[in-house]
Structures are given as C-alpha cells and as structure tokens.
Task: structure prediction
Amino acid sequence: MSAQSLNTPLVLTRRRPRLAELAFNFAIRACVFFALGFLLALLAFVVYKGWSRLDSRLWEGMPTARKSRIDTAGVQSAILGTLWVVLTTAAIALPLGISAAIYLEEYADNRRWYNRILELNIQNLAGVPSIVFGILGLGIIARAFGLGFSVITAAITLALLVLPTVIIASREAIRAVPSSIRHASLALGASKWQTVWRQVLPAAVPGIATGSILAVSRAIGEAAPLLMLGAVTLVLFNPDGFDSVYTTLPIQIFNLIKAPFDGFQELASAAIVLLLAILLAMNALAIFIRNRYAKKW
Amino acid sequence: MKADGSSTVGPLTSVAAELYAEEQPKVKVSVGTSGTGGGFEKFCNGEIDIADASRPIKDTEKAACDAKGIKYAELEVANDALSVVVNKNNDFVDCLTTEQLKKIWDKDSPVDNWNDVDSSFPDKKLSLFGPGTDSGTFDYFTKEINGEEKRSTTNYTPSEDDNLLVQGVSADEGALGYFGFTYFEENTDKLKALKIDSGNGCVAPSVETAQDGTYAPLSRPLYVYVSDKALEREETIDFVEFYIDNIDDVVNEAKYVPLTDAQKTELSKQYEAVKAKA
Result:
C-alpha cells in the first residue's frame, strides 16, 4: 500500500454501512432464506409423510385401487411408464433440437426473413403453456395421425414441448465457442461441415448436454398434457412397446392423492420423494457434465 | 382392453380389473378417469371399450355414438348416496330440506350465513365446498337440487380432489359440502352427514336408504357402458362377465353401496340381452 493512499483523507474511503445498504442486504438474504426454507419445508413434509412407504415395495408393487391391498402396492408401472415416455421423448427431441440449433447458429442467414420468423417462433413456443401442447397432441397426434393414447403419442407431444428449450440451450452453447476456433479450422483448409462436426460441436457438448438434461427433466415432471393424452389411472402391467398403454409418476401421484382411503396419501408422498430424487439426480448429472467437460478458452 | 370415464365409477372398474388380473394375468385392462363426459367422448369415438359413468348417457352423446355407428349396452353396477356434510362440531343442524339446499346452492345465491338458511340457526358464516364443474357429481347435484344441470352458485370452493373438500369441511365449523358416500364413510370421525328432507321427512344417507331409494333425491345409480364392438372379442366378454359375477366383491372392496337383489337380477338380464345381440 502506498503512502499516498494512507494519506488520503479518511472521509473519502470510509465505508460506513448506510441504512439503505443494510436493508437491501437483509432483504436479499431474506429472499434466499424464504425460497430455500419453503423448499426444505416441502421436502421435509413429503419425506416425513412418505417415510413408512419409502422401501422396495415402491418399485416392486403394482398400483391398486383397493384399500385391502395398499400395503403391498407400489408404482412400478408408473416408473417404467415414465422411463419409456421420457427416453422416447429424448430420442426424438435431442437430435431434432441440436440439429436445429446448428442450423440456426452456423448456417442460417439472419438477414433472411424466414430465418427471423423461425427464430421468433421458437422463442414463442417456449412460452406456450403445456396444456396447449396436450390439446394439440390429442387433436393431431392421437386422433388425426391415429396414434391413439400410447407411449409414442405422449413422447412426440412432450418432445414438441421441450424442443424450444433444447434449441435455445444448444444455441447458447454453440455461440459460446469462440469464432477464432472456427477461423483457425477454416484457415487450415477444413470444410464448413468438418469445422462444425470436429471443432464446434465437441467444444459445445458440455453446454448442449446440460441444457438437454434440464429439458428432459422438465418432461419427467409434466402431468397436464398427459392428462389430455389418456395417461391412465390404473395400469397393472408395464409398457411393452411404443403403442402401449401407459401411466407416469406425476399422473399416478395425482390419482393416489385423490383416493378416499388411508395409506394412499402415504404412498403418494413416497412416490413424490422418488420423483424428486430422479429429478435431483438428473440435475446433479447436468452440473457434473458441465464442470467436468467445460473448456476454458 | 381400455376403460375410461367417471372418477366416481373408476375405482369400481379398477377393482374389477385388479381381481380379474389375479385370475387372468395375460389380459391387460387399463382404467382411466377423465370424467363421465370425457369418457363418453372417447367411447363414442371408438377409442375405448368400456365407459364408466356416474349419470346416464346424454342425448348429445348418444348422437355422437350413433354418428360413429357405435352401439352399446348400459349396465347398472352400484349405488351411490351423494352426502351433504358439515363439520363434526356443528351441533345446530341435523337435517336440511331440499328447498333449503336450493336456497344455499342456487345460482347467484345471496346466502352466506347459516342465519339466512333458517332463522333458528345461529349467526355463523357459511362456507361452501363442492366438486368442480367438470364432475358428474356436480351435474347430478345441480340437476336434482337446483333443477338444472350446472346451475349453481359460484361462491364456493371447488375441487376435483374430494380429499381437499373433506379437509376444508373438517377445518371450518361453519362449512357445508357435498360429495360421494365413500368419502363420507372414510371420514366419519371428521364429518357429520346431514339428513335430507325432500317432503317425506328427514332421511340420512346410508347403504339401506340408498338401496331402497328413500334417500331422495340424492341417491343415484352408477353405470358402466360396454360397446358392442368390444363385446365381439372373447376377452371383453370374459371380463364383463367376471365384473358382473363378482359385483358384490367389487363393490365391497371399493366401499360403495351394493346393488339390491332386484337390481342384480336386472343387471344379469341386461347383460344376457347384450350377449344375445353380440
């Protein structure tokens, strides 16, 4: 520290916390605690309520409508139904969304009116309520295309629902790759395609993966559009194909909560904990991939 | 084999499907609960085999079925007594007339105090709880009490989840609500069911009064509709037959009001007629 700064009049450097600053500091801390406290209270409540049912019965048992069988019941068909629907959703939405992002970032000419319309459309789609996708799925995919109330109908609808999120996240990731990388690749004689495939995409993978996982976890928690698409209350068998009848965890939880008998609410709470655990695991995976593979330029 | 429809009848068909699956694990029965109206829409579109209904099919729905050439049979599988309930600690009311109920629940009803219902009741705020407007229970109650389907006050707390209604009424000493008998029976420690007087004295909801029809006008039959096309398949015939043969077990497991002997005879007759046609 130089002598100059020591000699500077104290009045200029003194930082006496002012009331407004203190109040602001307190307010933002209160916001964080409120959000966290609320989440913790909810978590504690469902774990407490579902504690007695948090064991292997949850995934080994099939659902029931009978009071006499609730002690051995579980949500196996809903767990497998969720897996079928979500994996199919990912298989549809990820290739489509990532390809669209590559086109928009690397190939599309922003001065063309159709590209601008495309972009506007994607932004808008991201804001459409999910129930609207459900109505679309019912009218077009289930009925007009004749796919019925099946795993594939649900997967296509959910894929449309998460597509804007995948595209937007992938575009961000691709945009974050410095253009010097592209220029260097092109300058060394690589074609446009080689540059995208061998340089840009590998560098963007962490961002794309993170965004995709978050998009897919949104699909897992969706119930509203699936209610329109005939995800049913009681399925005593696991899905065995794309045309199969199915149910998912959110739907099953919704129905369990409505049941008149004791014991069903506890099972619902246990299923909620399971659903939260799956979502938490997926988000943790997203963070892990981001930290592990992120490149520093 | 797919069934869908009323969330009131859904548990019955679900129990039947479960019991059936224990005997015939290869046949896959699924049960949805998208509401009586939603069920008929799919049924008349040929998308499901069995429609669960808490009211008979409407003319508009019949027309939709006709348009698609779907013929069906109506089977009465159980009884229900719509229960009008108050808080357990409510000691000033035991019985309401249908007129009083109408006064409370009618469109644009100004009643918001027990005092307004009857001057002998104390000055206590009246808060109402009932099913949402998509429910068959709502349709049935409004038709029987207010004289017109869906004619109702909007000044009440609606929920599709009957457990929320139970909670609402049990937490508020001035509350009044209505829902299916099962939900009252499972919560008799928190709720008190009112007797209903439709001109022939006060009658409490119970298995007996629902069966003999004296709990009027709020006792109602519950239906299952089976399409003729579905009955062409051996497995559907088998399931429906199982459902009918074991109707007592099914109703008991689901905690509904069972059919009387006369109704059971009628059910068998209806079913024989359907089978002869198919």
Q: What stands out?
A: Residues 186 and 255 of chain B are 9 Å apart (CA to CA). Residues 261-277 of chain B form the longest helix (17 residues).
